[in-house]
Amino acid sequence: MTTPTPPAEAATKPTDSLTLRVGCQFEFESTQAIAAIMQVAPCPQPGVQLEREQWDTGVDHYAYIDLYGNRCERLTIAEGASRIAYEAQLVLTDPDDHIDLDVPETPVGELPDDVMVYVMPSRFALPDELGHDAWQRFGDLPPGGSRVQAIMDFVHGHLEFDHAASNPWTTAKDVYIAGQGVCRDYAHLAISFCRALNIPARYVFGYIPAIGPGAIHEEMDFAAWCEVWLDGRWRTFDARNNTPRTGRVVVGRGRDAVDVALITSFGPLTLTGFKVIADAVDRPAG
Question: I want to staple 231 with a disulfide (CB 3.0 to 4.6 A). Which of 52, 103, 151, 213 is the partner?
Fold first, then answer.
């Protein structure tokens, strides 16, 4: 396994702030009016300044904060054909990923109470079922950031990215056996291995623009990665990209993908169109 090394210039020269336009559009068909919850707006967090945002729904809607600190929007999706769009402009004061492989793990007996849930099994992350494999592969490695990165390296190399390889019910064990998946599957498998080693890990999804080193130039979509608790705070790791990226914008965090569904509809709903936007915005000089 190889450990990705951040570009030398990124380690010595801080990147200027980055202005982004992010958003999404959904088109639906429904035989009746449907109550729904959407999670597509950036999560409140240090280093991210929301300059403006706009919803285009055609119906009344309101926001609330869930128990994980995510912004959720409640609304009713109209009967027949409908379109819902969201767009925001924001400024990231520290847009680059930072990787520190020398940070230590925290012994499980010393973890904060609110972090303990992230070492437990959840619907898609299965440390109990993958624990033997996790300890066989990573148990003898020195604890800390380098061991977490070894997990990311393995998952990145073990899985082949394939849009058609999984479905909404695919678990970490399923994808481990199949050897294929999408970004959420990479995250679930990496989270499962971390939790099996008593390292807290949580699921994250959001926007990643195709800019800077490591950019993947393909049709824009939401991305999923993970955050791992090391040395007293959460740190970003990304098994799918497995290289530092620029411009991550977190939309939601939770135990796994169940906690951060893009759309939760309380009735029959057909998605007929979908688009994601994540672009850098040029600032006028001066």
Answer: 103
